[in-house]
């Protein structure tokens, strides 16, 4: 009886491990998606609204979701120290608080965008936002394709390993 309970618990642990890995990847993909959508909205606001950056960020906060909203809210909260720090530094600090943003490339692209915003002409800012958004979308697409394969592999390996270990224990 103890062996059967142990075997069942082993299977449950394998399923929970696989579920945790799959949900972590989904959370990271959702973060990339929310940042990509936020860049679309930022681009639209830059094109249509000549407001100063703090006002633009308040508007962006209202229409952003997920991890991107936390980022914009954090950036908004730090805007009162804009004279003491550059916008690029504030952008970097807010971005460094985003644990769910996967991949160094995505962070580098967003860092580069933060260095351009508010410094150059409108068209340069729009182009930089569009380029960053496109790279994030490409990264998201690749991650989604990899995620499907990794999901089946993770679940399969977890269950196979737990079955093998269960057979050895029984």
Characterize the structure shown.
With 170 residues, this protein is mainly alpha-helical. The chain has one domain. The protein is 84% helix and 0% strand. The chain contains 6 helices and no strands. Helix 2 runs antiparallel to helix 3 and helix 4 packs antiparallel against helix 5. It is elongated and about 70 Å long. 21% of the residues are buried. The mean pLDDT is 84.
Largest sheet: none
Distance between the termini: 10 Å
What share of the residues does DSSP label as strand, in percent? under 5%
Q: Based on helices, strands and strand pairing, what is the structural class?
A: mainly alpha
Global mean pLDDT: 84
In terms of quaternary structure, the protein is single chain
Envelope shape: elongated
The proportion of residues forming helix, as a percent range, comes to over 70%
Q: Tell me the radius of gyration.
A: 22 Å
Number of strands: 0
């Amino acid at each position: 009886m103890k062996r059967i309970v142990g075997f069942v618990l082993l299977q449950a642990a394998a399923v929970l491990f696989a579920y945790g890995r799959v949900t972590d990847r989904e959370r990271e993909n959702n973060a990339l998606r929310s940042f990509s959508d936020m860049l679309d909205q930022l681009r639209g606001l830059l094109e249509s609204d000549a407001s100063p950056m703090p006002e633009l960020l308040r508007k962006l906060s209202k229409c952003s979701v997920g991890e991107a909203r936390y980022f914009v809210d954090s950036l908004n909260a730090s805007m009162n120290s804009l004279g003491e720090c550059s916008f690029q530094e504030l952008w970097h600090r807010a971005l460094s608080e985003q644990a769910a943003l996967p991949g160094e490339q995505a962070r580098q692209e967003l860092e580069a965008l933060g260095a351009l915003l508010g410094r150059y002409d409108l068209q340069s800012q729009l182009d930089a936002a569009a380029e960053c958004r496109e790279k994030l979308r490409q990264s998201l697409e690749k991650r989604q394709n990899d995620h499907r394969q990794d999901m089946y592999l993770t679940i399969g390996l977890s269950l196979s390993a737990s079955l093998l270990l269960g057979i050895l224990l029984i």
